[in-house]
Amino acid sequence: MKKLNDIAGGFLPAALKGLLLAAVIALGACASLQPGKVTPPPLQVAAPAVQVADIDILELSPAMREFLEDYVFEYDSPQTRLELLTLAITSSGILNFKYDESRTLTAAEAFEARAGNCIGFANMMIALARAAGLDAHYQEVFIRPEWSDYEDDTVLLFNHVNVLIETSRMSWVVDVSGIDIRPTERRRIIDDSYAKALYLNNIAVESLLVNDLPTAYAYMRKAIDANATATDPWVNLGVLYGRNEQLDDAAFAFNRALAIDPDEHSAMSNLYEVYIEQGKLDFAREIEARVERYRRNNPYYLLKLSDQALANKQYRESIELLKSAIEKKDDDYKLHFALAKTQYLYGKLAAARKSLLRARELAPSDMVADYDRPLEELVDER
User: What are the CA-CA distances from residue 199 to residues 22, 107, 116, 121, 170 (Å)?
Assistant: First the structure.
């Protein structure tokens, strides 16, 4: 699931900031605000309003019914049906489902594509399981936040949903993401309306990331209508308002998310930047310490701090910040190249070459040749 977040360099009101596709999500407590009807402020754009038709994310297609008839329905035992269903949908099974975190799909769309992110897979699996007479539910898992750099000061934070199926013999967790989920990770069952809000929220973020504000706004409104206790749509709506320079409305949206969940760190971080932009420094100071603790877990915030240290020729501090960032996200070539550059400038040539090699291993295929060049050339260019 996805949520947007700034990386501390400013809220980007004039420019812009999980598994799903939206703004940053990191729920630390159950919702404290009871459901209630709250109407978001209007989006102030000179464009026609976008209408979003209602959608059933769990609707079965004829092909899904045929699949169940062929491989599941002939067996009466719920346990057998469950085992056959889970085997059939895996990457080595008949369906050959592939996990793709970029695709937020309905049950029918995920079945047809044989792919999808965590919410797409959950939609498909729950629809099939329930049609097969099984007791299936969405389960939100509170894993360590996974950050993804996007562009400028925009960062995505992913969280995760999988499927819990109850039988008379045991509980089964069905998950095709490959994410390492420890037994101690906190988790909770979420209802269908909450899952629908997460689905709509992801679609909204996809539009927001390409700056289609009317479409993003329409889907966020639809997500809020689907479930009043989902914080993600409110956080992302605040980001949208900020991008459209509606700072009062952005503060309203972030405060609404915090009223639902006081530990909604992404909302707090973005609200802090709104207060700074508005000159409400007393309000900003009240939450500054909590925001800083949260941001220290964001590898791209640490990258930004390392850049500032490097500009002041504080090489050792810059290197330590980058190492801390890489501990939190080891698979981003940009972090490893930043470390190589800083180590080179500090005179640590052997370490710099090792870091550059790691950056090359992780870099996209169209950048590998570039990273084959001498490190001094790459540093000089930057």
Answer: 9, 11, 12, 11, 28
Q: Report the alpha-carbon distance of residue 154 to residue 167 in Å, rounded.
A: 43
User: Within 13 A of 212's CA, how many CA atoms are on the CB side?
Assistant: 13
The C-alpha atoms of residue 277 and residue 281 are separated, in whole angstroms, by: 9
Contact 145, 159 (CB under 8 A): yes
Q: What's the pLDDT tens digit per position in 58-115?
A: 999 999 999 999 888 888 888 889 988 988 887 677 888 999 988 999 999 999 999 9
CB atoms under 10 Å from CB of 215, counted, come to 17
Q: What's the pTM? A: 0.80
Report helix, strand or coil for 101.
Answer: coil
Provide φ and ψ at 222, rounded to 5°: -65, -40
- In a shared domain, residues 196 and 60: yes
Rounded CA-CA distance 360/371 in Å is 6
Both 303 and 278 in one domain: the answer is no
pLDDT digits (tens, 9 = 90+) for 23-37: 332 222 233 344 457
What is the domain extent for residue 309?
Answer: 299-381
* Shared domain check, 101 and 203: yes
